[in-house]
Amino acid sequence: MIASETGSGAIPMIKIKINIKIKAWPRLGRSEASQGYFLVAPPFLYALLLLAAPLAAIVLFSFWTQDYLTLDTTLTLKNYREALSDPLYGELLLRSLVISLAVTAATVLTAFPIAYFISFSVPPSRKSMWIFLITIPFWSSYLMRVFLWKVILGYNGVLNTTLTGLGIIDEPLSFILYNANAVVITLAHAYAPFAILPIYVALEKIDRSLLEASRDLGESRVMTFLRVTLPLAMPGVVAAVLIVFIPTIGDYVTPRLVGGPNGLMIANMIQTQFLKLNNAPMGAALAVLAMAMVTAVSLVFLFLNRRYLKGQK
Amino acid sequence: MKSLRLYAILYLIFLYAPIALLPIFAFNDGTVIAFPLKGFTLEWFKELLTIPALHAAVLNSLIIAVSSALIATCLGICAARAGTRFAFPGKKGILGLIMLPLVLPEIIVAVSLLVVLLQLGLPLGSWTVVLGHVLMCTPFSIAILNSAFQSLDVSLEEAAIDLGETRWSSFRLITLPLVMPGIISSLLIAFTISLDEFIIAFFLTGTNPTLPVYIWGQLRFPQKIPVIMALGTILVLASVILLAIAEYFRRRGVARTGQADAGGFL
Fold first, then answer.
1. Which residue from A310, B87, B99, B191 has the least number of CB within 10 angstroms?
2. What region holds the ABC transmembrane type-1 domain (chain B) (predicted)?
3. Do B94 and A52 touch (CB under 8 A)?
4. B30 φ/ψ angles, rounded to the nearest 5 degrees
5. What is the least distance, in Å, from the CA of A215 to any CA of chain B?
């Protein structure tokens, strides 16, 4: 990797540098790779012990069974069979997937024009201020924000009282709280910066002369956008989709607060299995199924967009 | 471009709508969270001072957030330096694993840690929340510190070593001051994330709730809501101040290493 960047002429120089280091610091004159490993070891071990190992444990757990407090460690597919045959679990999994997809679509589609606006219309000196403005709400308490959406969307909420006050509607709208719509609105709000930032970064990377060239060669503004800007921005859009889609499927707070009985998602069931029903293996199986579902959809999405991602990284 | 600007302004209103409501209801003299407003009061802020359980939760959250921020930033420095300065086989995979919590649903992280801790028979408590929060904060620290380390000129450090400094003293005297704004920014961001984090704390906390877990418990009681609004107002103000400081240090770091400002935390 390094050699290809520096070119052939630079290789002898690197050797000389290493020689000097070894001469001056015989004890510390390790190879670059071993220094890298030495440095990366603490965070890597941390992630290995507290992320990789627990994830492996939860997969193992999902093949066990639990009857109240006694844990049966014989490997079995019972949990999975139950999860896939019980319509309650199936419906929750499917609903979580549908809501996540809707949230992702809503978030990314509304975020794109904002990212485009900041990248193309805002003068360079004001760009970081705009980015800062967009990230501020994201850093305020997530719980409070979700709760406030409940206040806004409620039957006697801010939106309804304002709209009836202005005479736009006669009856308060009831389809916006305690259902999937409310979950989509709230999550689209919560994940907005996660969608805007990657798209913005991708748009910023686009060489503006390509757009001029396209216009000079006779393409219209719209066609230039579709044939030059959009394909070049796709890596950012793909990143935004994945960054929004993957975490939303496991969201617990939003469905619980604004979802009502028909807006609950799989995370609520996982929590119930773990903390209320004392059936950790079933919860683990549901968690594994949810992750498998997310991974499968993400991989298909990446595959469909593979031509835009070529030459990246 | 006119319509795009209008859209951007509407979008900002959408982004800020919930937060804008916080102070309105925090100062509203009525127990019901709805319009029309009743009158101005400081009652709810005064009540905040009289709840011992809240104070315990705030203290607990502060301890957890400071510990998580310190540990995550230390781990972040190691990873960011290794990632930007050295090439080694398997680097992508190793850093990928460390960055994984950024996209992993928090509930998965929470339940998998919970399962392991319970199986090992370890008691839950503030320290288990710290373990989880460090996992969540480290990727953010790395993202911030990466840009700090990336803009660093390697030859500065090499010059220091050639002039007789040890590897450690050159790191301390040359590298550290140059990336210090990034480190402060990382500490503040990690602190803010840990302070706000709910799911992991909800699963892994023992008998002492963190602040978000305490708030979650209160949201069930309608008569407690105005007090929570007052609390939320203070929290939002604190976050904005912390972020403004973090942004100030990030920009100073950018100016110090002489690169163009690309903006943003992520």
1. A310
2. 58-246
3. no
4. -160, 145
5. 17
Which structure tokens are listed for A194? 């996660």
Which two three-digit tokens encode residue B195?
């302070």
Cβ-nearest to A270 among B107, B167, B240: B107
Question: Looking at the complex, does the CB of residue A135 fall below 8 Å from at least one CB of chain B?
Answer: yes
Nearest to A60 by CA among A288, A213, A292: A288
In order of their start, the domains of chain B are: 63-86+95-256 (1.10.3720.10)
ipTM: 0.83
Q: Where are the domains of chain A?
A: 81-309
CA B122, CA B128: separation in Å to the nearest integer? 9
| Residues in B touching A172 (Cβ below 8 Å) | none
In chain B, whose CA is at the least distance from the CA of A269? B107
Partner A contacted by B116 (CB < 8 A): yes
What pLDDT digit, counting tens, does each position of B89-98 carry?
888 899 999 9
Q: Provide the shortest C-alpha distance from residue A217 to chain B (in Å).
A: 23
- What are the b/e assignments for A250-281, b being 16+ CB within 10 Å? bbbbbbbbbbeeebbbbbbbbbebbeeeebbb
User: What's the Cα-to-Cα distance from B2 to each of A111, A216, B6, rounded to whole Å?
Assistant: 17, 24, 6
Contacts of B124 in chain A (CB under 8 A): none
User: Tens of pLDDT along B44-92?
Assistant: 888 888 888 999 999 999 999 999 999 999 999 999 989 888 888 888 8
